[in-house]
Design brief:
With 200 residues, the chain is mostly helical. The protein is built from nine helices and two strands. Strands 1-2 form a two-stranded antiparallel ribbon.
């Protein structure tokens, strides 16, 4: 499960760079400036960095989550598959955000889709974490007290709130939505360790 997840996440994080295009020198030959054209693509860079960090941090936290397991079952495998599916749509959402961020129309909806994609991923991650920590505790390979498991779960669920808030705020300012998504990525940059002690 861990190897398959790593493969899917690696593909998703690699596809993000396809949203960054090289400026066409023949598009406006009379007023062409590479520095200017590169600067005009800053939404692509901002969305790329935010999404790259988010997927990378999910990968780190996913390893911490799976490392607590001694074995998995069908429910865990299915929830993990749903998580990977939500991660797989992030390159599309990132490209959508980067393309429409500075447009006169559609930018709010694009930002809402972007934040909604992160919310969907967070819901899937929280559901998988909750199942492992609370409903499949017998499958854990570490001895972790209930209070400690609930603390880990609370931290995983906190990210749902700013993503949910970022969706309606996208219709006020798509830039605020992008900033919120970046702040959430920074918050989760330090994952909760595996915790507990390995059982014999």
């Amino acid at each position: 499960m861990e190897s398959f997840s790593d493969g899917v996440i690696a593909v998703a994080i690699t596809l993000l760079v396809l949203g960054i295009t090289v400026p066409d020198p023949h598009a406006n030959p009379h007023h062409y400036s590479l520095i200017y054209e590169l600067g005009q693509r800053w939404p692509s860079y901002a969305a790329y960095v935010t999404s790259f960090l988010t997927i990378g941090i999910v990968w780190i936290n996913h390893h911490a989550m799976i490392d607590r397991l001694q074995q998995s079952d069908q429910v865990i495998l299915m929830l993990n598959l749903l998580l990977l599916m939500s991660i797989g749509i992030l390159p599309f959402a990132t490209n959508l955000m980067a393309t429409y961020l500075r447009e006169s129309s559609g930018q709010s909806l694009a930002a809402a889709v972007y934040a909604g994609s992160f919310l969907l991923m967070s819901l899937a991650f929280a559901a998988l974490n909750r199942t492992i920590l609370l409903h499949r505790a017998q499958l854990l390979g570490v001895r972790l007290e209930l209070d400690a498991r609930r603390a880990v779960l609370r931290r995983a669920v906190i990210g749902l709130v700013p993503y949910a808030v970022a969706i309606p705020l996208a219709f006020l300012s798509p830039y605020i939505t992008l900033i919120i998504c970046a702040v959430v990525a920074a918050y989760y940059a330090h994952p909760v360790s595996r915790g507990g002690q390995r059982s014999a």
